[in-house]
Design brief:
The chain is mostly beta strands. Helices cover 12% and strands 36% of the residues. A hairpin with a 4-residue loop joins β20 and β21. This is Fibronectin type-III domain-containing protein.
Length: 1259
């Protein structure tokens, strides 16, 4: 770099900044055109002689790094800048032609600001630049090279510029090549110099195109491009290109440093030309008269093919003629000659012109079937054959005729019945003629012929019709009986299938009887005898005299295994009954149910046809003739017997008979004179009666039942066969006999009182000819009414037996002596000379209600000192009305004053507010809508005494260190330790520390007439919270039951060093309950010096004191298996000692009444003595309770209890605390029950959830 000193100031114009702003941007510190630079110099003030001049020197900039296309500049700050002035720096650059060139006057400002470094971008590679730094100071809004601040003039001296060069690089990317000239086989392209050549170098350019020109197809390509030029020129003409092809080009610049990137691609198309010569057309498909050609489109040379021209000659080598012009590549030519070769050529056209013609090709059509034969004719036609001849076709289609085919089709109906309506092949041969056989006489046919060669069959000739010679007709068809009646047969047939070629002129019908007269015919085995043949119609005579009409025999009979057809008996001559040209004939005057045979033949001009087979038919049967009136016999009051004769069946046997009966409202007087008479009734009005069917069956007699006595009836008869019913016969009348009357009518029952019901009725509707002489009334008790209530109410039972109430001619009576509120049933019947009538419908009546009966005797339960509970039974009889309430009365024994203490509908109540130990009488009465009933029997009830008062003056003291345990016998006798020693009872010494006991004493409570005597006492010692005894089983609570009236006891099993609360309560005699607890006395047991500090109380011990047995206690927990086994043995021994036999306990309680009386506070008390006298009866219950308590204490420990007892102390205490939290302080007895309850609830919850899931899954 070269530094040239220069201190001439320089101003930068605004126009230059506006031009630089888009290039450099504001990030380089340029000042926008809206804020031009302040002037760099200013003139000296006129008072300059008075200012101090300060010169500041601005050093040149330093190029710290150059990385094309950017350079980083830095400079040193101005030094000694007066206070109050701020320096501002501006960097300017200028491009030089080379490093030795001098800069011009045009500088480009690239930075202005107060920083000491800047970065300039957008520099060109391999170029020299000049750079200079300008500085100024600012005060307020002025920035000059010379500034005036506080009498000081500041002038900045600038250093000269520096020169630096950017490093060389590869050329930058170029613009895509542009088109200069276009030709059919060439494209001239040009391009510009790259924006950054990478330095001052002579560049080399590389031009690539795609696709490759002709001759360069095998050159190495990259991405499909082929290099076509490399040199310094900036234009090039690419030759040997294809017309109308689009070519893509790109260019690249190269300098000594390296190759620059390729430019973007540009694409240009060469000029188009006419298509290339097409290939000749080929055959896609060919027939005898058509050719379908196709061809491949040629190269279009840049202009799409717009159409094709196809030419062909005449098939004989003549000139070409245009046959197709269009854009398609296929064409079908029609109307060509079979087996002929035609020449074709093809040309393609586009917008540039027409291609040259393709090479000529010759294509052949296929062979064709021959034309139709000529001159076809029938030379002769007989009854069953015809001769046919023809000539060969004129055109053979390019192939020799190989054979002729002849087909025949029937026209006449007879011919079509034989061979149908389709064409049938009858001849296939190379001979031009044939004879057709097996034809029907007199029938019309048509025939056709065609020729065939190797290409196939030709077309048929026009059909030629001919007719065979006439003959006699065929036999008529389908002879049958269209309809039959009892006296006629309508025979119908169809014309012959073929009339023989001549019209049918008439038909001939013959008839004969179907039967055998000679006895030798096959029909003789199955048909009727010859004597039973029917006679013919009027005017037609048969050889056999006419017999009576027999039943029709079967149309055919079996003989062996062959079906026999109807035949004519040789002894019978058939009779012609019809001759005419129409089909069908009805033969009249025949007998019902007879068989006949018929046959028919047709006649034309040639003669008569054969006869048809015999056809058998029979006339139908008719209804039977009207039967005679039936005969009447055996007439009674309710039935009679009818009989009759069998009428003629008219061709069908009588199968059944119908008898109808109707009541005669106007019977003849002669009939009513005497029952059982009969007669014929012919009056016309009889037919209008309402006849009802009485009998239908095959018998010739019947018994008619269910008739009304002494009534006239009309009877008529009708016969039936398979055809239908006959006419009704003449009516016959009959009168039935006398009978007992009908039941009385309108029976009514009306209650008059609680024991009387009034009855009335009407005479019977009919007495059947005998007057009523008396009536009988019966009565029965019905089931208890729904209003009855009571224990037996509402059983709904019907009457079990009827009792007689009244018999006499009157039509009213009364039923007395009935129960109140009871339902009764009544019925009545009448009597005449013939007997008793049926009973009338049963009617019911209920007597008026009455007050109910007395309820059951009251029963008392749940007695207390102030009341009891009373219950009674409902009254046995409510007498017709429900019990609405009960009245309970109570009276003190020995008085007559009754007080109603309850009124209500319940059958139990609780009586309270009574005096203790007092006897009361109780009675109850029921009330219904009729009033209050009688009182029940009285029940005597005595209230209980009040529970005894609680003991007083409770005191506790600790026993000695060594205790004397009483033997079992001494414990049962209630002896104290002192008494035991006096009597010589044996004692056992217990080592010190193994057990601890305390002595408890109290004062017996006072007794009076209202409180019960004391039976015993209960002592409870409860460890205080926080003591070691509270962690033991059962919370460490010790219980002791004392039997008798002793007022002291020894409480065993207390834990040394623990605090207990002790209290006592009295137990009353005769189940009067317990008194309240006495005041609690706290006691702290003395700790043992040799006690293990880690031992804890784990189980209750059984304490035995004088006068009672221990039911609870605690045992000391020891570590080790031996200690646990010893504790268990001691617990079992204590339980055995605490559960004495009940007899011994009873003896202990009542052993010394005098001593018990002396132990009271006064020594003798009359009421207490009476109470103690009753104590002996309850001692056994106290002993049993003690045994139960001991048994409960000795139950098997559960897993949770063993976990709390046999684990380390801290873990056992934790289990004890958790169990108390979950199940309460009595968790050892309650948690199993709570767990079971919880398990039941969880099981029910699971079942409900399962049912809900099943229901949801089905939905």
């Amino acid at each position: 770099m070269t530094t040239m000193p220069s201190f001439a100031p320089h101003r930068v114009g605004v126009g230059l900044l506006e031009r630089l702003e888009p290039i450099l941007g504001k990030e380089n510190g340029l000042v926008s055109a809206e804020s031009p630079l302040d002037p760099m110099t200013s003139s000296t003030s006129s008072t300059g002689s008075e200012l101090e001049l300060v010169e500041l020197r601005c050093g040149p900039p330093t190029v710290s790094s150059v990385e094309c296309p950017a350079a980083t500049f830095s400079w040193a700050p101005l030094s000694n800048v007066p206070e109050g002035l701020n320096p501002t720096y501006m960097l300017e650059i200028q491009q030089l032609e080379n490093a030795e060139s001098s800069p011009g006057s045009t500088w480009l400002s690239v930075y202005r600001g107060n920083k000491l470094t800047c970065k300039v971008s957008e520099l060109k590679s391999g170029r020299s630049y000049a750079a200079r730094l300008l500085a100024s100071v600012e005060s307020g809004s002025l920035a000059d090279e010379t500034s005036h601040v506080a009498g000081v003039e500041v002038r900045v001296l600038h250093a000269d510029h520096i020169v630096f060069a950017t490093p060389s690089a590869v050329p930058s990317g170029m613009q895509p090549p542009s088109l200069v000239q276009r030709a059919r086989n060439a494209l001239k392209l040009k391009w510009t110099v790259p924006e950054d050549p990478g330095g001052v170098f002579d560049l080399t350019y590389v031009l690539q195109v795609s696709p490759a020109p002709q001759g360069l197809e095998g050159s190495r390509t990259y991405m499909g491009f082929v290099e076509v030029y490399r040199g310094p020129e900036r234009s090039f003409k690419v030759v040997k290109l294809q017309p109308g092809v689009r070519y893509t080009s790109r260019v690249q610049a190269i300098n000594p440093v390296g190759e620059g990137p390729f430019s973007l691609c540009s694409a240009y198309t060469t000029q188009a030309t006419v298509p290339t010569q097409p290939q000749p057309p080929t055959v896609q498909s060919a027939t005898a008269s058509t050719l379908t050609l196709r061809w491949t489109p040629p190269a279009d040379n840049g202009s799409p093919v717009t159409g094709y021209s196809l030419e062909r000659d005449d098939g004989a080598g003549g000139d070409f003629a245009l046959v197709y012009g269009g854009p398609n590549t296929t064409f079908t030519l029609k109307g060509l000659r079979p087996g002929t070769g035609y020449r074709f050529r093809l040309r393609a056209d586009n917008d540039e012109g027409r291609s040259i013609w393709s090479a000529t090709t010759t294509l052949l059509t296929g062979a064709a079937p021959p034309s139709s034969p000529e001159a076809m004719q029938v030379t002769s036609a007989g009854r069953t054959s015809a001769r046919l001849v023809w000539r060969a076709p004129e055109e053979d289609g390019g192939s020799n005729v190989l054979a002729f085919e002849v087909e025949l089709q029937a026209i006449s109906r007879a011919a079509t019945a034989c061979m149908g309506t389709d064409w049938l092949k009858v001849f296939d041969n190379e001979v031009p003629g044939c004879t057709i056989e097996s034809l029907c006489p007199g029938c019309a046919y048509q025939v056709r012929v065609r020729a065939k060669n190797a290409a196939g069959c030709g077309s048929w000739t026009l059909p030629l019709q001919f007719t065979t010679a006439a003959h006699v007709p065929e036999a008529p068809q389908t002879l049958h009986a269209a309809r039959c009646s009892p006296s006629s047969i309508y025979v119908l047939w169809a014309p012959p299938r073929h009339d023989g070629g001549s019209k049918v002129l008439q038909y001939r019908l013959e008839m004969a009887p179907a039967g055998c007269h000679c006895g030798m015919c096959p029909q003789a085995l199955a048909a009727a005898p010859a004597a039973m043949l029917p006679y013919g119609p009027p005017g037609v005579g048969f050889a056999v005299p006419p017999p009576p009409p027999p039943p029709p025999p079967p149309l055919a009979a079996q003989h062996g295994s062959a079906m026999l057809r109807p035949t004519l008996c040789p002894a019978v001559t058939p009779v012609t009954v019809y001759t005419s040209e129409t089909v069908g004939w009805e033969q009249q005057g025949l007998q019902p149910g007879c068989r006949y045979i018929f046959r028919v033949q047709a006649l034309n001009a040639q003669g008569a046809s054969p006869w048809t087979e015999w056809m058998a038919s029979a006339t139908t049967a008719d209804v039977p003739l009207t039967p005679a009136p039936p005969a009447v016999s055996c007439v009674t009051a309710a039935d009679l017997v009818l009989s009759w004769q069998v009428p003629p069946g008219q061709g069908a046997p009588v199968t059944q008979y119908s008898v109808e009966v109707a009541t005669l409202p106007q019977a003849p007087a002669a009939l009513l004179q005497l029952p059982g008479r009969t007669g014929i009734v012919t009056d016309p009005w009889v037919a209008t009666l309402g006849f009802k069917l009485s009998y239908r069956g095959p018998e010739t007699g019947c018994q008619v039942r269910g008739l009304e006595p002494f009534t006239a009836y009309a009877f008529r008869l009708c016969a039936h066969n398979d055809v239908g019913p006959s006419q009704w016969s003449v009516c016959v009348a009959a009168v039935t006999g006398h009978a007992p009357p009908t039941c009385p009518k309108s029976l009514a029952a009306q209650p008059s009182s609680s024991s009387l019901v009034a009855l009335s009725w009407a005479p019977p509707e009919r007495d059947f000819g005998e007057p009523v002489v008396s009536y009988t009334v019966d009565m029965a008790a019905a089931g208890r009414s729904g209003h009855g209530g009571g224990k037996n109410a509402g059983n709904g039972s019907s009457a079990s037996s009827w009792s007689h109430v009244y018999t006499g001619p009157g039509s009213a009576c009364q039923a007395g002596g009935l129960a109140p509120g009871r339902t009764y049933q009544f019925r009545v019947r009448a009597c005449n000379a013939c007997g008793w009538s049926p009973y009338s419908p049963v009617v019911t009546a209920t007597t008026l209600p009455a007050p109910p009966s007395a309820p059951g005797k009251p029963a008392a339960s749940g007695r207390t000192s102030s009341g009891f509970r009373v219950r009674w039974e409902e009254p046995e009889h409510t007498y017709g009305a429900h019990v609405t309430s009960y009245v309970l009365e109570v009276s003190e024994a020995g008085t007559d004053e009754w007080a109603a203490i309850y009124t209500g509908s319940d059958i139990a109540t609780k009586v309270s507010s009574l005096l203790p130990a007092t006897k009361y009488l109780v009675r109850v009465a029921a009330v219904n809508s009729a009033g209050q009933g009688a009182y029940s029997e009285c029940e005597a009830v005595t209230t209980l005494l009040l529970p005894p008062l609680p003991p007083s003056d409770l005191s506790v003291k600790e026993a000695g260190s060594e205790l004397a345990m009483l033997s079992s016998d001494a414990a049962m006798q209630g002896a104290s330790p002192a008494a035991d020693a006096a009597s010589g009872a044996s004692t056992t010494a217990v080592p010190a520390g193994s057990q601890t006991s305390v002595l408890v004493s109290w004062q017996e409570p006072a007794s009076d007439a209202t409180h019960a005597a004391v039976l015993g006492y209960e002592i409870v010692a409860t460890p205080k919270p926080g003591s070691e005894a509270a962690a033991g089983p059962g919370g460490g609570v010790i219980k002791l039951n004392v039997a008798g009236r002793r007022c002291d006891a020894r409480l065993e099993g207390v834990v040394p060093g623990c605090l207990y609360g002790i209290r006592v309560r009295s137990v009353g005699v005769e189940g009067t309950g317990h008194s309240g607890w006495s005041e609690e006395v706290g006691v702290a047991t003395r700790p043992r010096p040799d006690m293990d500090a880690l031992s804890v109380c784990s189980s209750g011990g059984a304490g035995v004191a004088s006068g009672g047995s221990a039911t609870g206690g605690m045992s000391q927990r020891r570590s080790g298996t031996g200690a646990k086994r010893a504790a268990k043995q001691r617990q079992q021994a204590a339980a055995g000692a605490a559960a004495p036999p009940p007899q011994a306990l009873a003896t202990t309680v009542s052993s010394n009444p005098a001593e018990d009386g002396a132990s009271g506070p006064n020594g003798s008390n009359s009421s207490a003595s009476r109470s103690r006298a009753r104590a002996g009866g309850a001692s056994s219950r106290v002993a049993a309770a003690a045994t139960v308590v001991v048994a409960k204490k000795l139950r098997k420990a559960t897993a949770l209890e063993r976990l709390a007892d046999e684990t380390p102390r801290w873990f056992g205490c934790a289990v004890e605390a958790v169990a108390k939290t979950l199940f309460g302080p009595n968790w050892r007895r309650e948690y199993i029950r709570q767990l079971r309850t919880f398990g039941k609830y969880m099981f029910l919850l699971c079942v409900v959830v399962l049912v809900v899931l099943v229901v949801l899954s089905k939905q």
